[in-house]
Amino acid sequence: MNPHIPYERLLLKIAFAFAGSALSDSIFQVFTKLKPKNESPYIGAAYSKILQGKHEEAVKLLQEKALTLNPKSGSAYAYMGLALRLQDKVAESDTALASAKKCDDPLAARLADSIGQMKKIA
User: Fold this and answer.
1) Mean pLDDT on 11-25
2) In whole angstroms, what is the distance from residue 79 CA to residue 68 CA?
3) What does DSSP assign to residue 118?
4) Using N-to-C axis directions, what is the helix angle for 74-86 and 40-51, rounded to 10°?
5) Cα gap 77→122, rounded to integer Å
6) What residues contact residue 113 under an 8 Å CB cut-off, 6+ apart?
7) Superfamily designation of domain 5-116
8) Which of 29, 87, 90, 105 is deepest in the core (most CB within 10 A)?
9) Which residues lie below 8 Å from residue 88, measured CB to CB, with a gap of 6+?
10) Are 74 and 103 within 8 A, CB to CB?
11) Residue 14 in contact with residue 27, Cβ under 8 Å?
12) CB–CB of 117/82 below 8 Å?
């Protein structure tokens, strides 16, 4: 048993609860060092960037980090679709969302469906 797992889960919960804040960014940055071969911290960091309105940074993080580590990450594609949709890049968003739906991740597929139904945000 890994004694760090409960702390990791707690820290991830805190990071997502404070997503969009400097605290969240710091926690995700630590996780990228602790889990350098796992795409999840990069997805969390990208989500935080999305909440900060830094959509281009989120897309770059997902493309260059998360999807490089796991090219089949449905969550990475779904959040990339969201960031692109928020930039009004609908065609690119739809491509990313379609990729999310093709992955073996039912939660990512549902998220992609929801994002795909979003109307243009003023």
Assistant:
1) 81
2) 15
3) P
4) 20
5) 23
6) 97, 101
7) Tetratricopeptide repeat domain (1.25.40.10)
8) 105
9) 120
10) yes
11) yes
12) no
Q: Which residues contact 84 (CB under 8 A, 6 or more apart)?
A: 55, 59, 90, 92, 93, 96
pTM of the model: 0.86
> Two tokens at 7?
């702390």
Sign of CA dihedral 121, 21, 96, 9: negative
CA–CA dist 59, 43 (Å, integer): 10
- What is the distance of C-alpha 95 from the center of its chain? 16
Could you give the residue ranges of the DSSP H alpha helices within the chain?
5-17, 22-34, 40-51, 55-61, 67-69, 74-86, 90-102, 106-116
CA–CA gap between residue 47 and residue 83 (Å, rounded): 9
The model's pLDDT over 76-118, given as tens digits with 9 standing for 90+, comes to: 999 999 999 999 999 999 999 999 999 999 999 999 999 999 8
